[in-house]
Amino acid sequence: MDEIRSESQQVFRDVFGDDEIVLRDDMTADDVDGWDSTAHINLIVALEKHFKVKFAMAEISRMKDEDQNVGGLLRLIAKKLGKAG
């Protein structure tokens, strides 16, 4: 999971143009400057390209739920990569 977090952190930094972003499990869109609906789509596309995974529309929609956070996103990526543990 550390590798996924590290790689995801770099994707976040690239998408948001902020080399200071440090991912935390409890982080949400409210914690990242510029994370609006357009940036959300850009982030999803960038993560899909980087990890060579595809998110279903239902998964993307659930990411916007109030109880969702970066930790949940990282676990979803790990699951798609077969690295959930």
Outline of the structure:
The protein is an all-alpha fold and 85 residues long. The chain is 55% helix and 0% strand. The radius of gyration is 12 Å and the shape is globular.
Explained architecture:
With 85 residues, the chain is mostly helical. The protein contains four helices and no strands. The chain has helices spanning 2-16, 37-51, 57-62, 70-80. The longest helix is centred in the first third of the chain and has 15 residues, at 2-16. The radius of gyration is 12 Å and the shape is globular. The model has no long low-confidence stretch (mean pLDDT 93).
Question: Helix count, per DSSP?
Answer: 4
Distance between the termini: 8 Å
Quick one: biggest sheet? none
Overall residue-averaged pLDDT value: 93
- In total, how many beta strands? 0
Taking all Cα atoms into account, the compactness measure Rg is: 12 Å
Determine the strand fraction and express it as a percent band.
under 5%
**Structural class based on helices, strands and sheet pairing:** mainly alpha
* Order of helical and strand elements: HHHH
Low-confidence regions: none
Q: Which geometry do the CA atoms define?
A: globular
What is the helical fraction, as a range of percent?
A: 55-70%
